[in-house]
Amino acid sequence: MKRKKSSFSELMQFAGKHKFLTYSSWVLSVISAALALAPFVFIFFIVKEVIEVAPDFSEATNIVFNGWMAVVFAIASIIVYFGALMCSHLSAFRIAGNMRKKAIKHVTELPLGFIGEAGSGKVRRIINESSRATETYLAHQLPDMAGALATPVGMIIMLFLFDWRFGLISLVPVALGFLCMFKMAGPAMAEDMKKYNGALEEMNNQAVEYVRGVPVVKTFGQTVHSFKKFKGSIDNYYKFCVSYCKKCRGPMLWFTTLINSAFAFIIALALILAGGEAVTQGVLLNFIFYVIFTPIITTTLTKVMYMSENGMIVADALERIHSILDLKPLPEANMSEVPQDNSVEFDGVCFRYSNAQTDALKEVSFKIGAGEKVAFVGPSGGGKTTVAGLISRFWDVRDGAVKIGGVNVKDIRHEELMNSVSYVFQDSRLLKASVLENVRLGNPGASEHEVTEALKKAQCGDIIAKLPDGINTVIGTKGVYLSGGEQQRIAIARVMLKNSPIVVLDEATAFADPENEVLVQKAFDELSKDKTVIMIAHRLTTVKNADRIFVLKDGQIEEEGAHGQLLQNKGLYTKMWKDYTTSIGWRVGGAK
C-alpha cells in the first residue's frame, strides 16, 4: 500500500527552490527559543543575590550585570525570531502562490464542462481559500512548532536543574492540559474540520448562485427564503458551528484553567515542603524561580494547541486542492487527425453527467452537412446544451462517437479542435480589459484594423461610438458598462475574428432586449456565412429559417425536419410552436 505523504511533504513540493527558507526558519526559531530561556536564569541570579545579601543590599554587586544580560538575551531572541518569521513568510507566500498557479493551470487543462458541474463559487473557494489556509501554517505555525518543541527540552533541563520536586509538580498541569487538548484536537477534530470546510464551501457556492439571481429576487420582491438551497446552506453552517462550539466548550475551559494553574501546584508543594516551619532560603529561591518561569508553559501549550488545529486545517486544504489536481484532463490525441470538412456527426451517442441518475443523451445519431445551418429545440432538460457541449468536447461521451469532418473529436488535438469550433454562450462574459483586447482573444495576432472590421460586422458601431476611448476603452472602469445584448455583440465580434468553420450558438439572444436582438441577429447572419452553424434556442422565431430543426426530448431526437415540414407533422414541434406564438401574443392585462 502506498504510504500517504505528510502535509509538510506535500507543501514542500510546491516550494521549489524556496525550501531552504522554511528549514532556515526552523533553525532560527530553535535558537530564538533557547535564547528566550536565558533571561529567566539571569533574573533568578538577581533574586538569589538579593535574598543572600539581605538586609545589606549594598553587597549585591552583580544585579546590573545580570539585568543587562537578561535584556541582551531577550533582544537577541526577538531579533532571531524576527529573522525566522522573515524566512517563513517568504516561503509561505511563494508556496501559496505556486499552489494557486498550479491549480489554475490545471483547471484550464480540464474539460470545459468541469466548471459548470462543480460550480464556479466552489472552485474559486477551493483555489483561493485552501491555498490561503497554508500561509498561516507555514508562516507562523511551523517556526513556532520548532520553537515549541525546543522550549520543553530546555524547560525540562531547567525545571530539574534547580529542584526536581518543583520541576515534577510543574509538569502535572501540563499533562492534564494535554489530555484536554487531545479531546478537542484529536482525530475527531479532523473530521469536524472537514465538515466545517464542506459547509463553508457549500454556502460560498450557493452565495454565488444567489448573487447571480438577485435581479429576479428584487424584481419579484422576494427574500432570501425564496432561495431554499442558499438558506439551507446558511442554516447548516450555523448549526454545525454552534454544535461544534458547544462540544469544545468544556475541554477548552479545563485546558485554559489547567495550563494557567501551574503556580497553584507550586504553592501547594512549597507549603508541603515547609511543613509548617519557616521556609528555608533554598526552598524560597526555587519557589520564586518556578513561579517566574512556569508561565512559559502556558504560552508553549497554547502554541501547540493552535499548531495541531492548523495542521488539520492544512491537511483538509490540501485534500481539497487535490480534489482538483487529481482530476484528469481529457486524453489528448497521440497523432492528431485533421477534419476533412465542416460536417458534424453524432453516432449512437450516450452521455451522463457525473452524479446524475439518468442519461442526458440516449443513443443520439444525426449528421449535419458542411455549411448547413441547423437548430436544436425542445423542452428544458431535453439535452440541447449537452449536444452543443459535446461538439466542443466539453466532456467525453460514454458510448458512441462525436465526429467533425469524419474524424472522432477524441482524435483531434485540443488546439485543432478549438480552431475548428467557436462557441457563443448564452451569457457571454467580457474581461476587465479594453474592447480591443477582449475581441483580440479570438485571434491574438490580429491587427487593430482586423479587430475594427470584426466589430463592424458584429453590428458594434453604436457601442464603439459611445465609448470615451473607442475600442481602447476598458470595460468595467469609470462607469463604462455594457448591457447583456451589447456584451453579446462584442463576444460575436470575437468569434468572427477567430473565423472558425463551425459555430455553436447556445441561446445567444436569451438576454437581449428587442433592439439588441435585431442587431444580434444581423451579426449572426454575418457570422454564419460559409460556416456550419448549430443553434440552441427557446425563441422559435430565431430558428424557423434553419435548414433543419432537431427536436430533443428526454435526451432523444423526437423529430427532425424543416420548419414547415415539422408543422405538417403535427407533433411536439407543432405544439411548441403554437404555445410560443400564443405566448408572444399576450399582453399585460389579457390576450391580444
List keywords for this structure.
alpha/beta, 592 residues, 21 helices, 62% helix
Q: Which shape, going by the Cα principal axes?
A: elongated
- How many β-strand stretches? 12
Could you give a short account of the major beta sheet?
6 strands, mixed
Q: Helix count?
A: 21
Structural account:
- This protein is α/β, with parallel strands linked by helices and 592 residues long.
- It has helices at residues 7-13, 19-53, 63-109, 113-118, 120-162, 164-185, 187-212, 214-219, 228-259, 262-274, 281-293, 295-325, 384-391, 414-420, 435-440, 448-457, 461-466, 484-498, 514-527, 563-569, 572-584; strands at residues 344-351, 361-368, 373-377, 399-404, 407-408, 421-424, 502-506, 532-536, 548-553, 556-561, 586-587, 590-591.
- It has 21 helices and 12 strands.
- The strands form 3 sheets. The chain has a 6-stranded mixed sheet, sandwiched between helices. A 4-stranded antiparallel sheet has the order 2-1-4-5, covered by helices on one side. The protein has a two-stranded antiparallel ribbon with strand order 11-12.
- Strand 7 (502-506), helix 19 (514-527) and strand 8 form a beta-alpha-beta unit.
- It is elongated and about 115 Å long.
